[in-house]
Amino acid sequence: MATLTYILAAVVLLGLCIFVHELGHLLGGRLVGIRARIFSIGYGKGILKKEIGGTTYQVTLIPLGGYCAFYGEDPSEERKGEAYEFLSAPPLRRIVPVVMGPLFNLFFGIVLFFVMNMAGYSVETNRVIIPEEFKSGDYVSPAHTAGIVSGDRIVGINDKKIAGFSDIQSAIVFSNGEPVRIKAERAGESKEYTVKPQKFSEKGYYTIGVMPYGERVLVVRVLDSEAAAKAGLEQFDEVKSIDGKAVKSPAEFTDYVRAHADKPLMLKIVRAGRDHDILVTPRSRELLRIKDFVDDRFPAEKRDVTVDKLDLVKTGISRGTVRLNGETVSSIEAFEKKLAGLKGTTVRIENAGGSYRGVVAYERSGFVGIETAIAPEMTDLKYGLAEGFVKSLTDPFDFIVMNLKGMGMLFSGELDVRQNLSGPIRIAKIAGDTAYYRGISAFIVLMAKISIILMVMNLLPIPAVDGSFILFFLFEALVGKPISQKVMERIQFVGVALLIVVGVLVIFNDLSFLPFFQNMFN
Question: Helix, strand or coil for residue 113?
Answer without folding.
Answer: helix
